[in-house]
Design brief:
Homodimer which associates with NirD. The protein is an alpha/beta fold. About 30% of the residues lie in helices and about 25% in strands. Strands 4-3-2-8-20 form a five-stranded parallel beta sheet.
Length: about 1000
Amino acid sequence: MALNKVDDKRTVVVCGLGMVALSFIEKLLKYDTKHQFRVEVFCEEAQVAYNRVGLTQFFSHREEERMLMQPLSWYSENDVTVHINEKATYIDTTTKCVISENGLSVSYDTCMLATGSYPFVPPIPGWNKTGVFVYRTINDLNEIINYGKKSKRGAVIGGGLLGLEAAKALMDLGLDVTIVEVAPVLMARQLDATGGEMLKDEIDKLGIKCILGIPPKEITTDEDGKVSGIRFENDSIELDLVIVAAGIRPRDELAKASGISTHQRGGIFVDDCLQTSDPNVYAIGEVALYGGMIYGLVAPGYDMADVVASNLTGGDKRFLGGDLSCKLKLLGVHVASFGDYTASKDVAMPLLYNDPFGSVYKKLLFSKDGKYLLGGIMVGDTDDYTKLHALMKSKKVLTVAPGELILGVKSGQAPGADDLPDEAQICSCNNVSKGQIREAVKIEECRSIGQIKSCTKAGTGCGGCLPAVTEIFETEMKALGHVVTNALCPHFSLTRAELFQVVKIKKLTNFKDIIEKVGKNGTHGCEICKPAVASILASLWNDHILNHANLQDTNDRYLANIQRGGLYSIIPRVPGGEITPEKLLVIGEVAKKYGLYTKITGGQRIDLFGARKQDLPIIWEELVNAGFESGHAYGKALRTVKSCVGSEWCRYGQGNSVAFAIEIENRYKGIRAPHKIKAAVSGCIRECAEAQGKDFGLIATDNGYNLYVCGNGGAKPKHAVILAKDISEELAVKYIDRFLMYYIHTADRLTRTARWLEKMEGGIEYLKKIIIDDHLGICAELEEDMARLIYSYECEWAKVVQDPKRREDFTQFINTDETIDGIECISERGQSRPADWPKECAVTEKDISEVKKSANLESKKWVKIAPSSAFPDDAGQVIKYGDTQIAIFNTNERTKWYATQNMCPHKRAFVLSQGLVGEEENGTIKVSCPMHKKNFALETGECVSGDVDLKLMTFEIKIEDDFVWLYLPPKQELDRILGTSKWKVSKKLSKMSKSKNNIEILGSTAAVGCGDISPCGDKKMDW
């Protein structure tokens, strides 16, 4: 069958549809502003172009669609004709026609060969037996997965880039893994002997065995002809599965069959314009032989694609060789090489840095006069790769000594992105130069990093260039007179979104490393950045929230919402609002047993109020045993997915809203975000679940569901906007995955989705492009991130109740099992609740001074309190001394200790020990009260958030013989000043407040209210 032209456009026929072929098509469409070309593609595989660089990611989600570089719809939308499962076998260069093995014939004006390569399989006996695989296509991966289900031991022949990726895949399948490499080092093309040895050491730690420098003699089989092992000259290993990843060979058989010149050892000869021996036929990617070189990396292939696409549309570009520099993460180890990293001693002088303790190796090569950087190798730490690579490519004379590039600058600053010329490549994944980023700011008027990424694609690949991109962006913005800072707090110069990306790219997993490497080193953080970082860590790595307890605001630290008087509320998860009678009875029994106030929430759950901190674990133990999970009402996380009864009961229902709501809530439960997330599913357009007032909501239609996003109720209500219409449940879940992860990646701290969308340049239409059209090319990454969070979910409370050590953290006092109530409760409408706060409630410094007059504070002595090991790092704990509660804090890696009253004088809540410890911009160490974010200096007790009348009593403290000691007056004397029963809000005082509109404070009548400041003490902290 022959397909001929149907219009006057010139036909470009592309043979092959891999990553480089797609890049060529995309660039041709971009440059073809006159619409002169039409494109037809012969695609041998069953899938259109997919991400071969990220093959190993397939093992985590196993969804072919997520691997696609562009959805199938993209090709039809751009008038690109793709012939799936059609392998081109002959090009008639005389008639200018491409013919497939199925007889399909397509005429061309220009033919592009992008047939790529095939895996090289060494001629080892047994290479073709059952259980031997190559690692190249999705079909290969599916075969490996299926065979791996019944395998325990696997080996990879090949220790290069692809071999290490394959080893990671086998490890993910749960196999014991061995890497067999003929060369004496791993990644012999990218690393020297020292770098390869350090990489091997790191891989050894993962339990992967490496056999280097010994060629395999035979792949052995059992009596059924299946792989049983590998035999070497003097040894053998037992195996069930073998992957061969020993290199590639160009797929040039199409060119050979068509009379196009090829090298005898493989590859199609091309010139600077990528033309073959036939002027109407071009070749790019791994099949093209340029200057005696086959380029096996994707970046040079993209460069080739750009040259041909540009020249076909009137440009005049030349391909003068590709850059083989690369930056990767293999089996958890960061590895990079750039420039002439194998330069001989005749032309280069190497400078080495080898840190076996930190597992870091760097080798930079300089010209013999030390004026130019020629190349380098980096293992373990590749943070400086982008700048060093750009500096190498710029060929500029160094402005610092070579040693300062590898060890750090002794004075002044090392050359940064500002020092690079405009032609310096910043993003190697997408070949974006510094000049293009500057033009995006000046000419395209990009005003955010997100817009820069959208406009230039810089930073949308591996993300390693993001710091340099940010530096260039900010410099250009400042030059144009724009304000660019949106720093998280005084301890971090980055925004929350920028910090998220840096933590992700650098794989940072704790606050200490983050503030040392990204923030102001030597500082302690504050009540703003600590919870923000805790949220980022949870959104990225999803380990138990209490692993970072000292970063958590009180609600997250104790997995419950703090209420008046330091009491807590408990809200078990009730997915979709559906609950059985048996579970209802459990909640009722628990509430009755512990005297808890019960109320139905707006999110179709049951709230239990009034739990004491020390009772939380035992209450939750009963709930967990009954099948309940944490409802995460305390966290910036998914709260509820509200539902109507839907088609199961309602006569108007068009969709099973209850079932879908339960599915969604169980999918996203526990996922942390910049702010709380609420959702709903309505079974029809009557909208009983109020889906259009939620962060995301679904409304059933005759044809599926309408998906709404970025709405909310509350103080600033916002109607949600429609993202997609009449979509299936599966597609809705896919879009929600992307939407939530993009919000988590990019929103500022404490920003709801509605405000986030309002700030987004381009609004909902831009969001649609990202979520639906994958405009930034990040949807696969977003879906992978979401899959990891879902997979790693665990109920936080279930983990706590099963761990005696974690349960100890909920005790009221560190030095005694005795307990004290911090507020009295009253009975109202048959339930118990805290006594009312009076309007004037604060205990001022003057009040304390008055009561001090009646106490004898002269006879102080050192009192032994408790082992120092009993106190948490960089956080507070409370002790009982008579009737007085004293909060004890430590900072600076337990070298600096403080002691203050535990009562916050603002509302007389005995909770200061539960507050976040942080640092003011001037270095003052402070604690932030968890009730209303009043901040107090721990050294002096002074309020540093504006209330000059409020001050804490502080006490001398020392550590001696690993015990905490306090310098205190007798108990009865201190109780006169700070006794709990003296200051706590009581029934009597509550009644007086109602009748007199004030409250009598024992010892004084002076008081201070909130006045004109924010009720949270600081408007930044209002939630």
